[in-house]
Amino acid sequence: MDTVIAVKNLNVWYNHSVHAVKNVSIDIPRHTVVALIGPSGCGKSTFLRSLNRLLDTMENTNIEGEVIFNGKNIYHGDVDVTALRKQIGMVFQNPTPFPKSIYDNIAYGPLVNNEVGGYWGLSGIIKKFKKRKSASEVEASKDKLDGIVRESLKEAALWGEVKDRLFKSAYGLSGGQQQRLCIARAIAVKPEVILLDEPTSDLDPMATKKIEELVLKLKDSYTVIIVTHNIQQASRISDYVAFFHLGELVEYDTKKNIFTNPRHQLTAAYVKGEFG
Amino acid sequence: MLKKSETIGFFCIKASAYAGILLLLAALALIGLAGYRVISWQFLTGLWQHQDIAAGGIWPAILGSFYLGVGVTLCSFPLGIGAAIYLTEYGRQNFWRRSIEVAIRNLAGVPSVVYGLFGLGVFVYLMRLGTSLLAAVLTLSAMTLPWIITAAVEALQAVPPALRESSLALGATKWQTIKQVALPLVLPASLTGGIVGIARAMGETAPIIMVGATFYLTKLPTSPLDKFMALPYHSFILATQHSDPRAVEYASGTALVLIVLVFILSLGAIILRYYFRSKYKIQ
Prior knowledge:
The complex is a heterodimer. By secondary structure, chain A is of the alpha/beta class. Chain A contains 12 helices and 10 strands. The longest helix of chain A is centred in the C-terminal third of the chain and has 14 residues, at 205-218. Chain B has a single domain (36-278), classed as MetI-like (MetI-like fold, Orthogonal Bundle). In chain B, 74% of the residues lie in helices and 0% in strands. Chain B has helices at residues 4-35, 41-45, 59-90, 95-107, 112-126, 133-157, 161-169, 174-202, 206-211, 231-240, 247-280. The longest helix of chain B is centred in the C-terminal third of the chain and has 34 residues, at 247-280. Chain A binds chain B through residues 52, 54, 57, 59, 82-86, 89-94, 96, 98-100, 108-109, 112-113, 169, 171-172, 182, 185-186, 189, 195, and chain B through 92-93, 160, 162-163, 165-173, 176, 180-181, 184-185, 279-283. Chain B: It comes from Candidatus Falkowbacteria bacterium RIFCSPLOWO2_02_FULL_45_15.
């Protein structure tokens, strides 16, 4: 089994007192969907945030242990954190479009990572004024950035819905569309792993279904780690399920084993919905 | 059915709301009635004639106040937003940061004449700018800064954390995140607080007397180091120091022009804010 992320004895403390993640070890296989489930406050979101070092941005957080991503510990001193976050993308609970156009939301990642060049200088300013293209122009464009925007939106199954308003504010989209925009924005920087933190908890059933279909499709190109409150969702889209309780990883197995043949009493009770 | 005590209470609340509007209208009506007769093209565009106040105009004072407003905006907005970014984004939550924040909040309440003395000591004498437009701009900027910093700090703190995290999660640096994601939301919000401060600065008399405003100039200022005329000071002198019997009427006319100027400035800020909001469709 090809492992993309291997977590070894990870511990996280908040404010030097709250032990939020307790000695968790887990191997994430490449090109799978891994669901992290568990009741509120079980540490699953904290664990997710430790995988792209987003926890570092919070004050008074202590992290111990190793997160081996492609053979290298991401908590080693010489790791370039911004480069790491480009490889491990993330989408949050509430849709978080930037106060920019749909096009600029997708273009943001490639631009801040300087992949297409000439954004902060004069040529970038000229480009900003020139780029009001129509859908068909972006469709046919040979420009690298246009291509990234087009392909990312198509990959997120959003292109058809937004192609005629690419340069309008992203706040004009519905909640479900905004969330797919955030997924498109995350895949625009070509990450290897995508972390989803309860991406559908704010969405209606139809929008949720679209996101779930998208996640299943993303598995071919990326590894997806999704935190979810929704046990049915985990059973619909995941290959592996990790059950967290009070900061500990209680059980980690294939979906089939977790739902039909759990080893722990606690897991069995949770997937049956006896507590939440 | 409302109870009697509720009816009385409701009336009091309503009355206090209307009192605010009435006071504003009364002040406007009073100044307008006292001063509208002197407003003419010549009054707005002519150079000041000290001997015969009806022969000249207040153009140098309008221009002086306009320069002050523009200068203070250019000076205090970048500085204030910069300070706010440092405080909220880079300053660590500790004793020093809290001290700075408390100091800034208190600075907003310091009497303007104290700023005048500060400007006289620091900008006029220590930095050898002399009594000049530049010294006045710097003095009034120091006075406006706390307003802008407070407004910008509040706006920065209102940016949803998930929005910043989304940017960081895409591999953006902290500075890219602030510049690209936070500032577009912060600018319109801090405009409101900022414009109140700038309007207040434009209406100030006490500090600018000390650092460079003068009542009578024979020519318009051509460099930032020249002395200048300003509307509030002009109005003050006419109302209290001038011997001409028509002086009070001209003082009211000058005050009317000042109010309109400040009003135009506020309107500009509202339009700018509306433009930002509709551009990003911020609710």
